[in-house]
Write a structure and sequence with these properties.
The chain has a single domain (6-155), classed as 3-Layer(aba) Sandwich (Rossmann fold), CATH 3.40.50. The two termini are 25 Å apart. A hairpin with a 2-residue loop joins strand 6 and strand 7 (146-155). It is α/β, with parallel strands linked by helices. It contains 3 helices and 7 strands, in the order ββββαβααββ.
Length: 161
């Protein structure tokens, strides 16, 4: 039987059963906290094409390099692996109000990582974008901090995908 690897990136205290919970910060009561310590602004420690599913809730806006973040997610995902990203959008104050946000995202930001999209086709090589995804779902909801984007992306790793 093959074991599935599911990652919960930037988990904080939102530990998810069945996932490898990952964060770079530990709460003060970390003796009761079960998570893998990792700095996601660097090279991610998982080998290529080994991860089945990634939850990235309220984390990518804390990472300084959008291209590196998306390239690493794509690199570690298996072909057709999925990343579910939840992020405050630049359409509201939530993206800007947190002083620890260092990158800012909008639904259109993901066009640069979407296989077959004119933005990726035109700029990927020059920008160093290796990631290629297919958008499976994109949804905007309202929160107390403004619009939030949930987007599910499937890793495309073969021309036949």
């Amino acid at each position: 039987m093959t074991t599935k690897l599911w990652l919960n990136l930037g988990c904080g205290d939102a530990i998810m059963d069945g996932y490898l919970n990952v964060d770079s910060c530990f709460p003060k009561d970390s003796k009761n906290w079960d998570a893998f310590h990792c700095d996601l602004s660097m090279h991610w420690p998982w080998p290529d094409s080994t991860v089945d599913f990634i939850v990235a809730r309220d984390i990518i806006e804390h990472l300084p390099n959008k291209i590196q973040t998306m390239n690493e997610a794509w690199r570690v995902l298996k072909p057709r692996g999925i990343i579910r990203i939840e992020v405050p959008t630049t359409d509201g104050p939530g993206a800007f109000q947190d002083p620890t946000h260092v990158s800012f995202w909008h639904l259109n930001s993901f066009k640069y990582y979407e296989r077959g999209n004119i933005y990726r086709d035109r700029f990927a090589r020059g920008y160093g974008i290796e990631a290629a995804f297919r958008v499976l779902l994109a949804d905007i909801t309202t929160s107390q901090d403004g619009p939030r984007l949930t987007i599910n992306l499937e890793a495309v790793k073969d021309e036949a995908d």
